[in-house]
Amino acid sequence: MTSADVAREAGVSRTTVSYVLNDTPGVSVSAATRERIRAAAARLGYAPSAAARTLRRGRSDLVVAVLPDWPTGPVIDALLDHLTDVLATRGLFVLVHHHRDSRDLADLWRAVTPRAVVGLAPFAPADVAAMQRAGIQVVGSREPAGDGTPADGDGFDRSQRGIGALQVEHLAAAGHTRVAVATTGDPRLRRFADARWAGAREACRAGGLAEPVRATVRDDEPATDVVAAWRAAGVTAVAAYNDEVALAVLAGARGARLAVPGDLAVIGVDDAPAARVSAPPLTTVAQPVDAQAEHLAAEVIAALDGVEPPPFPRDPAYVVVRDSA
């Protein structure tokens, strides 16, 4: 169906159809005519062409959120949902793209011509330069430092380091001086894991604690051997990468006949539903994804308006205290 079909159905000109369906400002069309045109478009199943609207306006109303090759979960889902809601108030639509290295990222923005691209992980410098040359606003493009540690200016990575630090600070406040970090072996999550590990190490140094030990823990089997080795080395508390890893540590503690938190305190991340019903209930770090999504949306809007983006909220995560720590 085309606008010409709608015009014939409604008994008006194609130009009037364009004015009404595209909400063209400064044009006088009666309410009755507007209603007749919209009703005709609905009956015919017509919608204005996004490509044509982009050509006419010289810009699109599409924001692409590029999600790297990460496993999705409730935190990412909630962040994207809230980002979509916030940007909708500016008339912007969000398209989520799960990027894989097997295809050039340039193929994406050439195909959909977005107004802005939001990266949940850093883009390659060449991709950033190409998008900027095409007039696309780029948000979240900072690369990590050369040694693999997150860039100081990257608010997202600062928040991840803050999570690791928050875990250690909570354990230290309870009197623990020997801490282990149970990390994930999923290569897709390495950036998160490295940032949280860096935060845990920084917090240990700042608090005068011994250097933390680190081991990879699978989230689909009890970490009995790892937990037993840690306890033999004097570890009394574990900061787990997330709640799933923490649950494997709890299972490992049971297998090693250790009491939690008497022999070993455990803290996770994400405040997943399972954390509330584990044995014992899991202390964890909650991430207020609404604040993170609002910040991302504010960065997009600031980029489109040509103004400075707001500062990233400082370490917005917080500890949910339960029995495990």
Automatic annotation (TrEMBL):
GO terms for molecular function: DNA binding. The keyword Mitochondrion does not apply. CDD domains: HTH_LacI (cd01392). Residues 1-57 form the HTH lacI-type domain. It comes from the Bacteria. Pfam families: LacI, Peripla_BP_3. SUPFAM superfamilies: lambda repressor-like DNA-binding domains, Periplasmic binding protein-like I. Keywords: DNA-binding, Transcription, Transcription regulation. This is LacI family DNA-binding transcriptional regulator.
